[in-house]
Amino acid sequence: LLISPLLLTISTAKEIDQEFNAAISALRSHGYTLFPNAIATSDLSLRLHAATATNSTFTLFAPRDPQLFSLDLSSWAPHYTASLLLHVSPSRLPASYLRRLASSHHSLGGPYLKTLLPNRALHIERSRVMLNGTVLESVTVDGVRVLVPDLFLGPCIAVHGLEGILVGGYVPGTDD
């Protein structure tokens, strides 16, 4: 009877690793190559693995390579790491939920999502974009358009590709 829970734990850890690796592969295959590298070379990878190991879920908002490259070149290590933490929300949020959230709070200026960066939040709003003469509904995260919604969706992880990079805002009612 003691072997069964151990095997379940090993199996779950393996599934979590597989999901995390699949999310990283999806990012790379959609042209978001620097964000996975940044995750791997910072403590963010350890934090995300620890979160999923405790059945926590999260959403990655992936910045595009040119903006992340510029941030890397122009930032001190603590600022760069803080910027990475800002791109992670500690809940799995598919695009359909983000759209619903933005629409339901539209008259109030939109809701805020917690991030892994303490006392910082991401402002979610709906927006409209013109694409080939057609007006499309879109979602913005701190004013940055979600370019590739649901780039990856797993049981614990959601990933969205952004059109730019997040600079973040304060959570209303908190101090930094």
Fill in the keyword field for this structure:
176 residues; alpha+beta; FAS1 domain; 43% helix; globular; FAS1_dom_sf; Fasciclin-like_AGP
How would you explain this protein's 3D organization?
With 176 residues, the chain is α+β, with helices and mostly antiparallel strands. The chain has a single domain, classed as Roll (FAS1 domain). 43% of the residues lie in helices and 27% in strands. It is built from 6 helices and 8 strands; from the N terminus they run αααβααβαββββββ. It has helices at residues 3-29, 34-41, 44-53, 65-74, 77-86, 95-104, and strands at 58-62, 88-89, 112-114, 120-131, 134-141, 144-153, 157-162, 169-170. Strands 1, 2, 3, 4, 5, 6, 7 and 8 form an 8-stranded mixed β-sheet that branches. A hairpin with a 2-residue loop joins strand 5 and strand 6. The radius of gyration is 17 Å and the shape is globular. Residues 4-11 have low confidence and may be disordered.
Quick description:
The protein has helices at residues 3-29, 34-41, 44-53, 65-74, 77-86, 95-104; strands at 58-62, 88-89, 112-114, 120-131, 134-141, 144-153, 157-162, 169-170. The chain has 176 residues and is an alpha+beta fold.
CATH fold topology: FAS1 domain
What spatial form do the alpha-carbon principal axes imply?
globular
Q: In which range does the helix fraction lie? A: 40-55%
Radius of gyration (CA) equals 17 Å
Kindly name the structural category: alpha+beta
Question: What count of structural domains?
Answer: 1
Largest sheet: 8 strands, mixed
- The helix/strand series, from N terminus to C terminus, equals HHHEHHEHEEEEEE
Instruction: Tell me what the CATH architecture is.
Output: Roll
The CATH class turns out to be Mainly Beta
Weakly predicted, low-confidence segments: 4-11
**Averaged pLDDT, please?**
82
Beginning-to-end CA distance, first to last residue: 49 Å
- Work out the strand percent: 25-35%
Q: Could you give me the name of the CATH homologous superfamily?
A: FAS1 domain
Q: How many helical stretches? A: 6
Total count of strands: 8
Protein name: FAS1 domain-containing protein
InterPro entries: FAS1_dom_sf, Fasciclin-like_AGP
